[in-house]
Amino acid sequence: MPSRLPPLVIGAVSSAVLLSGCGATSLGLGAADDTSGPGASISKRLAALVPATVRSKGTLTIATDASYEPNEFLAPDGQTVIGMDVDLLRTALQKLGLKADFVNAKFDSIITGVVGGKYDLATSSFTVTADREKQVTMVSYFSAGTQWVTAKGNPKGVNPLQPCGLSVGVQTGTTQADEIAAINKDQCRSHPVKAVVEDLQSKVTTDLLAGKIDAMAADSPVALYAVKKTGTKLQAVGKITGAAPYGIVLPKAQTDFGNAIAQAFAAMVSDGSYDKTLAKWGQESGAVDMFAVDPAVAS
């Protein structure tokens, strides 16, 4: 297990800036935590932080786009949603005395669904951005960047720093789709990147394996897992860029509940379940020590 500082929690009213780490304050979680009984994972102290309107529901409906392996994807039964994000949030909610019902949803419809009340929460590898924080409350819990992937041997000689003219697969509504759009407005204005946009990340990966695109760009955990899973068929090219936090998505008015979730994540670091979950999915490199409600991020 990597050596890390004690976990920190930043509330919504904090002036801390996540990018610089300034102003972070520990809420004094303590080493021990009372539970509801032998073997139980509910923390009475943390459960008391959950707003009554949320607590009364008992089971929360949580949206996720189950095409983003290993973060969120379908089990072999084709119905059960599993993955790193699912395990992390389920464990955090258990500490708060809540249950989770994960439902598969189209990625670019999820935030609208949370805002409209269709879903109570969402976890789907959402990068925390200033635009998203205008619509919803977000709780940071992991760090990821963008990784490019090509066919093994990089037969097209792809250089992510010189992408003009390449066909690049991305998923609808993702940070990578936004990055390609920005590149085409600037660096590749005269010779744009051909963005092949798919609703599902699994389809993007399939396109690359089939030779329909020159490369794909995805969040680093997903991209590197695809390389590992396909054996000798794919390879990562270039460095991971634009590292930024992932965030749990809540309705905009639920900052108090967001603070409870942040404290639950911090408690998971203390008891080892956070590191254990990341190790299960091979994602230890994205571990963070700071869990922030509506963290300040670059625009």
UniProtKB/TrEMBL annotation:
Q: Which SMART domains match?
A: PBPb
- Keyword Signal, does the record have it? yes
Q: Which Gene3D superfamilies match?
A: Periplasmic binding protein-like II
- Please give the Pfam families that the UniProt record associates with this protein: SBP_bac_3
Q: Which domain of life is it from?
A: Bacteria
The protein's UniProt keywords, in alphabetical order, are: Signal
* Occurrences of domain Solute-binding protein family 3/N-terminal (ranges): 59-285
PANTHER family annotated for this entry?
ARGININE-BINDING EXTRACELLULAR PROTEIN ARTP (PTHR35936:SF17), MEMBRANE-BOUND LYTIC MUREIN TRANSGLYCOSYLASE F (PTHR35936)
Protein name as annotated: Polar amino acid transport system substrate-binding protein
Which organism's genome codes for this protein?
Answer: Rudaeicoccus suwonensis
